Amino acid sequence: MDDRQKSLLKEIVECYIKEVKPIGSKHLCDKFHCSSATIRNEMAALEKMGYLEKNHISSGRIPSEAGYRYYVEHLMEPKELNGEDMLKLQTLFSNKNLTVSDAIEKCLEIISDITNYTSISLGEYSDENVLRQINIIPLDEEKLVALVCTDKGIVKNKQFSIPTDINMMEVVKISEIINKMLVGTPISMVAERLEYDVKPIISKQVEQYEAVYGIFYDAFHDFISNNENIHVVGKSKMLNQPEYSEPAEIKRLISKLEDEEQVRKIEKNDNRDISIYIGSESNFDDNVTVVKTNYSLGGEEGTIAIIGPKRMEYGRVVAVLNILNKWLEEKGD
Amino acid sequence: MDDRQKSLLKEIVECYIKEVKPIGSKHLCDKFHCSSATIRNEMAALEKMGYLEKNHISSGRIPSEAGYRYYVEHLMEPKELNGEDMLKLQTLFSNKNLTVSDAIEKCLEIISDITNYTSISLGEYSDENVLRQINIIPLDEEKLVALVCTDKGIVKNKQFSIPTDINMMEVVKISEIINKMLVGTPISMVAERLEYDVKPIISKQVEQYEAVYGIFYDAFHDFISNNENIHVVGKSKMLNQPEYSEPAEIKRLISKLEDEEQVRKIEKNDNRDISIYIGSESNFDDNVTVVKTNYSLGGEEGTIAIIGPKRMEYGRVVAVLNILNKWLEEKGD
DNA sequence: ATTAGCACTTAAAGGTAATAGGTGCTAAAG
DNA sequence: CTTTAGCACCTATTACCTTTAAGTGCTAAT
User: Fold this and answer.
1) Cα(B264)–Cα(B262) distance, rounded to whole angstroms?
2) What is the pTM of this model?
3) What is the rounded CA–CA span in Å between residue A98 and residue A101?
4) Which residue has the higher pLDDT, A155 or B308?
5) Chain A / chain B CB contacts < 8 angstroms
6) A153 vs B159: CB contact, 8 Å cut-off?
7) pLDDT (tens digit, 9 = 90+) per residue, A44-62?
8) Nearest Cα to B88, choosing from B316, B274, B320?
9) Within a 10 A sphere around the Cβ of A240, how many other Cβ atoms?
10) A234 in contact with B at a CB cutoff of 8 Å?
């Protein structure tokens, strides 16, 4: 591909992103100081290379998936956020009082707001969380609360009723054993060690150890079960995009966005770069692009993804995520 | 309105609910053993009374809001759920291990599933929750967890960092004061009593009482801030309804369902009956009907609402909510 | 290598007519 | 007095046709 073809492709992609209609050769004459016939020749070449497509034999060109891909990899220029968007982000960042999950949720809202696309988060407790302590707080003769804390500051509580024939002190005793044995264990390993290391010991010291064991197993439940925190924000934002003008298309997309099973197909990133998945690459829907980046915040880590049409404003979205990324890194793990 | 008119209205409403197209006079001849002209006369009468409407001068009739209202109040017959739907509900009810919020969420899913409408819950901690105890659990020199429990079994925890110049024991001392003074106070009153009864006392006993006071205030935050638990399930279900065949309509509805501000306009019921709000009565959208009933479950109370088109299958929806209601009552407050 | 010119293609827009499904009203029948 | 047949009339929907706008590919000349 020669230079003129590159800049032609760039122009076509950017023009299509703005106008959302197939681009004809005449539109580009001025910019390239040549006749429409010349442009047509070049366009035909780009089409043969697979970067452009036509809807029908006599229509203008639209970028193909490969075209978008070439664009984001080689042609796209970094973009600055405008003042207004910047301000919104900064307002978020300056609020120190948010909990982790609130901060992420707020992020999604702002991203969705300034991009007009849908944003989602796929979160999970970080593997770096290790058990710090477990506390048993009695409420009355029959009820107690188990409090589980990790070193990264995640705290969960769970309430239990215990059978009257089990002495509350037995429960407390076991909590002490667990505290001695398991503190420092990564959360993801707790279930296993509870079963193989702790259970044999308490089975000797406590009579109805099965019931009591169950309590502790349940107490860790929130951490053990693959606690995927999925949020989808701004589903209706996508309806502002002109590609969603047909009821069937709208229904298809909204149903997908509502279906957690489907959303989970957007898998987590494995690094903290910004990655772009166009159309069929997205693993979610052939008509959308998914842009992802990872975060790690207060003991929780995951991926933030933006879902937009394939003719997404790539520059802008990447700019937003860059700023977000920088902020998250400062705020630190 | 004479008997024939009543049964005519009933027939028209039910037929329209099924067919979703304006009902013409010919369709009803057979059923009423008379000519279309007779039906037309009666229809004209019903229209004059305000129970029927026409889209244009020569179209069939559709029920007006008043028509639907008359129908649900006087004409509708109770309906039995079919076996399949019943089974789904029973499967839910038999699962004892669900937490309150999970149970409600699951309810919404099932309702939405069997009705093909959208369902929402507006929940709140019951006023009957009174403070049972507050515990302070130290994590290390700087961090602690405050655990707040109510008699109805709601437990919340919140983590804090405390300034190094404040002694952890001071915090524990204050928690003891609060436990002595406020146990038994309705959750909704805690903020007030904290301010007017507790603050004056601790201000004498603790030096930096403002900071410590803040910790306790925050600990109660989840209860104090009007903690409205709003869930909307099955937004896309509404798109299966034939009235949503135009992009603009779809967009309008989906945006509304996504907007918590809007959803909150569907206010809570004030009793446990099933109430029906048709069109403009719904306070949400002129094109929908909202059916509501209250629940009270495990210290949380609120309203479950079903949002469907005005030509909702009223009998079926009421049947579902009736069963749900009975179950919730058994399960008790 | 570029360009003017031309035949050709298609989607979208506009116009007209036909059709289907309905009404209201009048006058006759029951 | 109620019911009904009959008819003129109304409107949305559909189908069909034509025109227009936008664009292409190809050829031959520059």
Assistant:
1) 5
2) 0.89
3) 8
4) B308
5) 71
6) yes
7) 999 999 999 999 999 999 9
8) B320
9) 12
10) yes
